[in-house]
Write a structure and sequence with these properties.
With about 350 residues, this protein is α+β, with helices and mostly antiparallel strands. The chain is built from 11 helices and 16 strands. A 5-stranded mixed beta sheet has the order 7-6-5-8-9, sandwiched between helices. Helix 2 runs antiparallel to helix 3 (about 50-60) and helix 5 (about 155-185) crosses helix 6 (about 195-205). The protein is globular. The chain starts with a helix and ends with a strand.
Length: about 350
């Protein structure tokens, strides 16, 4: 999530940004709804050129699959993305920083993930980029085609069986190589496997160790044949992904509870969290499910130029820009390659797990 290049590009330069989230599924009342958002942007001080550019982008997206998130500064829309099936009120803001919480929450619930369905000849791979609900599909066909273990009896029976087993393993090796490349390329942290039991056993043996240690691997049902299991797997993929994200959040909360107040490896509250961000110490920024927009903070051009008051920044000759504390913290976290997690029933308004103690 933090390494998302378009999001980083929005945050590098401290320039005012217009942020719009617009439900593009309904078409009947689009003009009325857009005029309401355009009015809000104008009240916030957005230039006419930005409002017009966003209007064109929004209207071009109707009808669409869900909510369109669009961000503009200068005179153009810099980044826009569909968030399929998301339900949220139409929202528009113009300020020193983009409003990224809904987009980050969507990406958190839709991490990069890979589904691999194997048989003894190869595999069908479906790769979902972070934030995507549409996969990129790839088929891997192994190098060996002698897959049947059936053969005449007698002295040659063992040789036929051994040759077939070798073929299955060679094909699984080919799948493992392609799968590892895709997991690394998309930085996937979720891998779901289905298909032939023996093929899956061979795949497990030949997957790189870093996948076993750094990626959550789960099994789902069904195979490559046209047996009606593909539709069920789509549902299983969604359920398993939600469960994995919830488990990851629970693990981060447990780590936070174990280390908060024990020397700085976990911090909570606005003051300590902003201080950790200013030192570049934050590994995971923890945000609650409900933001506190009334709490303000200041930031400068550098990723770690953050403070709860503008005085120290200005005394150091650093331009100071005001925004909501959460938006300032998100900017610092993204630009220092920290992970961001929005957690239900989490810690106080803002908290963090740190890379090192002060």
């Amino acid at each position: 999530m933090p390494n998302n290049t378009p999001i980083r590009a929005l945050l590098i330069e401290p320039v005012p940004v217009a942020s719009v989230y617009f439900d593009v599924r309904a078409t009947a009342d689009v003009p009325i709804r857009w005029r309401a958002l355009a009015g809000r942007l104008a009240e916030d001080g957005a230039p006419t050129q930005i409002i017009d550019a966003l209007e064109r982008r929004v209207l071009d997206a109707v009808p669409g699959p869900g909510v369109l998130a669009a961000f503009a500064h200068g005179t153009t829309v810099r980044f826009a993305v569909d968030l399929p099936d998301l339900s949220m009120p139409d929202t528009a803001r113009y300020g020193a920083l983009p409003y990224l919480r809904p987009l980050l929450a969507w990406e958190q619930d839709h991490p990069a993930r890979v589904l691999a369905v194997l048989d003894r000849t190869g595999a069908d791979l479906s790769v979902y980029a972070a934030g995507s609900t549409s996969p990129v599909d790839t088929t891997v066909t192994g190098p060996d085609d002698e897959i049947e273990r059936n053969a005449p009896g007698g002295w040659a029976q063992g040789r036929y069986q051994h040759r077939a087993e070798d073929s299955w393993e060679h094909n699984a090796v080919a799948v493992a190589e392609v799968l590892a490349r895709l997991v690394k390329r998309f930085d996937a942290r979720v891998l779901l496997l289905a298909g032939d039991v023996r093929a899956l056993q061979y795949l497990d043996e030949h997957l790189p160790r870093w996948i076993h240690t750094g990626v959550t691997v789960r099994r789902v049902t069904g195979g490559r044949s046209e047996d009606g299991s593909a539709e069920r797997r789509t549902g299983q993929l969604a359920v398993q992904t939600r469960q994995i994200v919830a488990e990851q959040n629970a693990g981060l909360l447990a780590e936070f509870a174990a280390h908060v107040g024990t020397g700085g490896s976990a911090v909570q509250g606005a003051g300590d969290t902003v201080a950790a961000l200013a030192a570049g110490r934050v590994r995971v920024l923890l945000l609650p499910a409900t933001p506190s927009p009334d709490t303000r903070a200041w930031f400068g051009p550098a990723p770690t130029a953050v403070d709860l008051r503008p005085d120290q920044l200005r005394q150091a000759g650093i331009p100071a820009y005001e925004a909501a504390l959460e938006d300032v913290a998100i900017r610092a976290a993204v630009l220092t390659d920290a992970e961001i997690r929005i957690i239900e029933n989490g810690p106080p308004p803002i908290a963090a797990l740190c890379r090192f103690t002060p």
